[in-house]
Amino acid sequence: MVATLIKLELLKRIRSTSFARSLTIGIFIFFLAFLLLSYLFLFGLSLNHIVKNILGQDDTVFFINSCLLYFFLLELIYRYFIQQLPVITLENFLHLPIPKSGIIHFLLLGSFISPLSIVGLLLFGPFAMTEIKYTFGPVPAYIWLGSIMLTSWSIHWFMLWFKQRFEDNIPAMLLVFTGLLLSIGASYYGYYDLGAFFEPVFTFALESPVPIFLLIIILVCSYFLCFAFYKQNAYLEELSEEENLSFANHSFGFLSKFGLAGEMANLEWKLILRHKKSRTYLTFCLIFLLYGLIFYNNPLYLSEHGFSYIFIFVGTFITGIFMLQYGQLFLSWNSPAFDFYIYQRNGLKALVKGKYLIFGGISCLCFLLSLPYAYFGWEILWIHLATFLFNMGVTMHLVVYLSLWKPKPMDLNKGAMFNYEGMGMSQFLMIIPLLMGPYLIFLPFALWIGDYAGLVALGIAGLFGILAFPLILTRIQTAVAKKRYEISSSFRQEL
């Protein structure tokens, strides 16, 4: 049965009309993953040196055990965004005369074959085989490393259950992310160290084999918890049932003032909330609002005169992250129903204008949420204001224009991490002008007159773009209308 399921999966991929593109992207992702895992292994080899000579910790084992809790909290977060659910594949097999339990075992075990399953081994394996084996002996080293791997694998099965059981509960993961940041910050400033509190739990693995047996029981329980839930809900009507998201049916009344375009904007907002991939982009938008904390309080970027020019990139990123991420797939979001807009009177024009309303509205919200950064200096506020105006007047139009070059279809119910559906060459190349654009305006005035003159020039350029919005909107609408049949044909390609 396993051989038959593997054969069917291979035939599905080979017979796809986008096999060549998927193969190319797969090879690229493979080399990217190999590169990242290689860096992770090198970091693991240098872990003992980093802890002793850079962080200045004499007892490296105690320090690593104190940090393991933070590692597992971080693993919860990155598995939430990266780890894929096997539900979509499950739909392809339920109608076949194959035992349901066998199908679920096959899919769950198949999901375990992932680079994420060896992250703990690459990171802590070299440390266990050198420092711990030398200090405590080989058996405690294997037990300690085994405890880390079993915990990591238990998180794998728990996350598969959690994401399906609670329908991608974003508030819960934001709570974990906030707790992680607060714990790290409290430890850094010396208020309390949550990791040190749990340190004896991991140190116990160096003294006794009991943790191995307990963690094996936890691993088995987490697997069968996941298995039982999938088996209980493995019915086509259950899998096709719409998510119970009451907030996803909420409409913004003020958008009705914009006529048909406002209705399209309301539909776009519901699309964002109802589908996994678009919700992930919206979540990233909120998380990346914290991006400024990496730069604005970093001594490396502080300047006695003016400010660091990298702050222009940070301000552009914070106030325009949604239009940069969501906007680069401008029409691909609507690929399943694009024909509907073609045959509606003024449907395409209203769709384009509605998307502009969404981009502008969320960018305004990002700017308002970034105002507390003025705590680091009033120049940060002026940077955000200038980059916000530039994003609204220039970047937004540039993103939309570049996204019209051969858009690709995509499945909205798939996750966003390592999912390149809808991505074409233009999406990869547009990052170059988007990053260079603000500096092309800012640098000449900043170097010849002063930093704040560059900010004024940046803001004025954005204001000109905002004033020219009706003309630019008309041109974009005309461009979409001219390419509508070409775009519609490309959207009919099988993913």
Quick summary:
By secondary structure, the chain is mainly α. The protein has 25 helices and no strands.
Folded structure, characterized:
By secondary structure, the chain is mainly α. It has two domains: 35-239, no CATH class; 256-491, no CATH class. It is 71% helix and 0% strand. The chain has 25 helices and no strands. It has helices spanning 2-14, 19-45, 47-54, 60-82, 87-90, 100-111, 119-136, 138-165, 170-189, 194-197, 199-203, 210-232, 236-239, 260-274, 276-287, 292-295, 310-325, 338-342, 347-369, 378-403, 425-429, 431-448, 451-467, 469-482, 484-491. Helix 17 crosses helix 20 (378-403) and helix 17 (310-325) runs antiparallel to helix 22 (431-448). The longest helix is centred in the N-terminal third of the chain and has 28 residues, at 138-165. The protein is globular. It starts with a helix and ends with a helix. 29% of the residues are buried.
